[in-house]
Amino acid sequence: MSANNISKASVIPALFQDALALAYQSLDIYFDNPTQLDLAFGSNYNQTVASQLFTAFSQGDFSSVPEIKILSDEVLGATNGAYSASKNQIYLNERFLSANAGNVKAIASVIIEEIGHYIDAQINTTDSAGDEGDIFARLVQGETLTSNVLANLKAEDDSKTIVLGGEAVEIEPTFRTSKK
Questions:
Q1: Neighbouring C-alpha atoms within 13 Å toward the C-beta of 162
Q2: pLDDT (tens digit per residue) in 54-86
Q3: Is residue 96 within a helix (H) or strand (E), and if so which, with residue range?
Q4: Do β-strands 89-93 and 68-71 pair in parallel, antiparallel, or remain unpaired?
Q5: What is the pLDDT of residue 14?
Q6: Exposure string (b/e) for 28-48, b if CB count within 10 Å is 16 or more?
Q7: Which pLDDT score is estimated for 7?
Q8: What is the sign, positive or negative, of the torsion defined by CA atoms of 37, 29, 175, 46?
């Protein structure tokens, strides 16, 4: 193993934990007074399930969030992160983590987006139109969505297939990196 690989192996877990803590803190704060959830998830989502999830998040309980696995860019390609509803799993790209070693906010933003995809899969019977995870992440991070940005996000196809362990797996990818 090269010195570069040893360095990555020791830095990425700490970086990931810092980003996860920041993402959870942002979600905790947001769910104390959530706004505009219909923009991301539509208006016909399961209110009971949503209330249970959102109450837990506002209390700092993220135990329902699926396991997050770090995968190579050979598997994820240009995707920074992804959520698979069929596997109930969140994935982060190791290359993305390494490239953003000095930008925990960017990594937290991707984690929040993937949690948004997870929430959608829990509270809706079908995937919300467009890139609901991106819309959700922007709301959580306090971004104001213009009508043009929202229309573009609602028109986006946020589906992709990867091969994981020899199996084709449908994912909802994240390509965007937060500017914050």
A1: 22
A2: 999 999 999 999 999 999 989 999 999 999 999
A3: helix 94-99
A4: parallel
A5: 85
A6: eebbeeeeebebbbeeebeee
A7: 37
A8: negative
